[in-house]
Amino acid sequence: MEKKIRSHFGKRTKGVHRRRYKKKQPKVNETVKKVLFLKGRKTSENIRDLLTDLYLITKPNAHKLTRKNDIVPFDDETSLEFLCNKNDCGLFVLGSHTKKRPNNLIVGRVYDNHLYDMVEFGVDSLKTIHQIKGETCVDGTKPLLVFNGDGFQFDEDYKMIKNLFIDLFKGVVVQSILLTSLQKSPNVDLTDMGPHFNLTKRRIQMASNDLMKTATWVHPSLRPKKVKNVSRNKLGDKVGRIHMGKQNYNSIATRKMKAFKKKKTNNQKKFYKK
Amino acid sequence: MDVTAILKRAKKKKNSHLPDKADTLEYDLGSMLCIDGDFSVEKQDVQEEDLEEIIKKATLENTQLLLNKIFHLETSSEEAGVFVKLPHPTTKLPRTKKVPQPKKETRWEKFAKERGIRNKKKSRLVYDEEHGDWRPRYGSHKANNEINQWIIEKKDHEDLKGYEDPFIKLKNDKKKRVIQQRANQIQNTIRNEGGKITKSMNKNIQGILNSGHNKKKSKKQIDQILQMTQRSTASLGKFDKKLSGEPVFKSRQRRKFQPNIQEDAGIERKRDLNILDNVLTKDTSDLNLNKAVNRYLSMGRGSKKFRKNNARQGRKGGRGRGRGRGRK
Hints:
The complex is a heterodimer of chains A (274) and B (328).
Chain A: H1 2-8, H2 16-24, E1 35-39, H3 45-58, E2 62-68, H4 78-86, E3 91-96, E4 104-111, E5 114-127, E6 145-148, H5 151-154, H6 156-169, E7 176-178, E8 196-205, H7 209-216, E9 231-232, E10 238-239, H8 266-272
Parallel strand pairs in A: 1-2, 1-3
Antiparallel strand pairs in A: 3-4, 4-5, 5-8, 9-10
Chain B: H1 3-14, E1 26-28, E2 33-36, H2 48-71, E3 75-78, E4 81-85, H3 107-115, E5 125-128, E6 133-136, H4 166-193, H5 199-209, H6 219-231, H7 265-280, H8 289-298, H9 304-310, H10 321-324
Antiparallel strand pairs in B: 1-2, 3-4, 5-6
């Protein structure tokens, strides 16, 4: 009985608090960005379904809040920043539904406890994972992302949206992947898994150039190391160049062969005899 | 015989994984993505279902191209299987938190670096000869604790004049060391921030100051201490100067003691015989054994098994207060 009461009151063992605090501390190399899913003042079934589906895709690096929040990010972002900070999330997805903005989805990012950027979308023609019958993939698989359309290369808004989506869906940053885990090559077949939806861009708030610079700054230890002087020839061999200094060919120490040695003639020899 | 047709067919078969279109995609293999700039559809021209098909076809081709590129990367075979080493991602993504400032060296770390002193890994437990068991190296319960010495030898060169109690000296030295350690910690935090005390540092400094015996006490603890101090005066806190808002605790009745040595020897004799009588002739038939045992158990005594079944809800309050100090 005694033990039960203890655990119910959440008696924390030594070090748990310290470890939790350490986890939240900023790191030089950030590999994971958690997503926070939340609801606005009012939601529709569509939006709720979409939030669940997106949560399923971004698991396990996602946190879903169930209660409704009186948050309108484009008016006041402080409570949103607070929630993101508390839950240690770098991304948020807020779903709401009003008459003026039906099926509203706001996706945004947080940097240094402040709002970085966000986009507002209108969602329509949604088909959830549940509705689309077929196979689904395992939690936490890293996706291949394909962006169709030149807007993603040239239009500022869409470039930002692309950046945002990459951040949202990319999962954990890895350096190498297991070949066998990729779909069987070389012929690819795509099966619709869902969710399937159309987004219409509504409002957008981008980060200022200065903020972008500081946020995207990469620590020198993490920058790609330039390896010089290494290349591969057509046979696949690793090739590099060794640079020698200027050489005096007359005085190079080569292999000595007695046959080539200049022999002193008898006259020369006599010259030295006394 | 027309061989060209056969060759064409063979080539097509071999390159069946290459889509017909030209590869003009922009790749970022580090993030496993590609962007197709050539894809464009006029929404007005196309119907809903057709649009789906067009997008699906384009995506399929692009995925194929992307996968091909990934498969052509440098591979390394390891125990788990064949791994493909992804290049550095080219898309610039923002961080979530600021890059942490590199920690400045503490005074000791600087010194250790200069002298080439390295940390030797030491065992956690040390054998304590006095107790004959293994105790932790550090901490209040540590092995070979000097403070718990019961005998301290006097050194010959020490003069008895101005001689200070060595036991008290040990305790005071310890206190000094603790204070010094805290001061060093605070100095290190200030030095780490560059010499100025900032608001954010204040929290850290408060934490250091409130550590150990200075741990912040809860309101309950402070009330308890206050109650004790009030009671510890001869008048049980009745005539103490109290601050506005300070609670007044119910004071017990002052215990009356008889003087140890009575003037009248007869009274003392009577008293002592009374005590003896009470002890020897105690009528145990009045004792409610069940009640006694239960009370004993509820105070947290006895074996675990029986305590479990009989412990009162809530350890504090009620009869268990004061850790069950002997009550009749």
